[in-house]
Amino acid sequence: MTQALIDTARRMVADHKGLLAMDESNPTCNKRFAQWGIPQNEETRRAYREMIVTTPGLGESISGAILYDETIRQKTEDGTSFVKALIDVGIIPGIKVDTGAKDMAGQPGEKITEGLDGLRERLAEYFQMGARFAKWRAVIAVGNGIPSRGCIEANANALARYAALCQEAGLVPVVEPEVLMAGDHTLERCCELTEEVLRTVFSQLYCQRVKLEGLILKPNMMLPGLSCPSQEAVDEVAEATVSCLMRAVPAAVPGIMFLSGGQSPELASARLNAMNVRFKSRLPWALAFSFARAIQQPALEIWRGKQANVPAAQRALDHRAKCNRAARRGEYTVAMESDQQETALRGVASLKHAGSFS
Question: Active-site positions?
């Protein structure tokens, strides 16, 4: 079982590919649909996820897809399960298993991620369904007097217990401690807190006897808060991020796959690219991506619930996936965006002419 976990983790970061996070909960997915006037129901969510998993060429850039409980049980219109559709194009199915971040007792403004109750049984079911990795997200808010040690330690312990249960079930755990971008904190503050969080997480992983060679870390990049007046350049973010990770992440971990955390698609790609251009030859682990909105958002804006828009939306999705694969190689350029924008504008114009946005 140990070698199988290691092999899966290595496949997840192999060949300059990354993960596509399509594990939004139903309420989150519905909220995004509402922004574009898309009906918020199970069938529309199924159609949207079908558009994603059937995107031509997606397996060339994406090694694994993180699904939600509803999604892993759904099928394409022709009756093919999403799990099979992904496996058939070389994409490893994964599953989000936490049940969300809830208010933490005694710690105002802080969250604790729940979902450990019954997790062993759920993991066994997901493995039987074809999932080979799982994901659990811890949320660390930054503000006046927070995060507290209580919040950091409780979330780190939950992440480690989840990871141990995953490995017991034969699933690679994706360990996601996210220091949030919301706030006016500086880049330096983000680095300081992220290092503290990561050190605590790995301490707990050791305590729970989790095999580091069989897990993936999914952290935030080192970024100033969204409302911080000082917003550092791409190269400064890249240097701060790699410096922090080098101090806090053991070399045994096969890969670090960043969350996008609300970054624009273009900035997320540019920052990942800068890290690989400047530091790749010196790193003990792969630096990759596990993006949700930073890959999906352009496609969702084009799709808008219309079947006629599927080909254009799939082209946008494939483009973002290819941009991030290029970033892993250190070959991403702004020119890749301008070429795609011209193609997208032509596609949108033709769709409007045909009445697809009516």
Answer: 176, 218
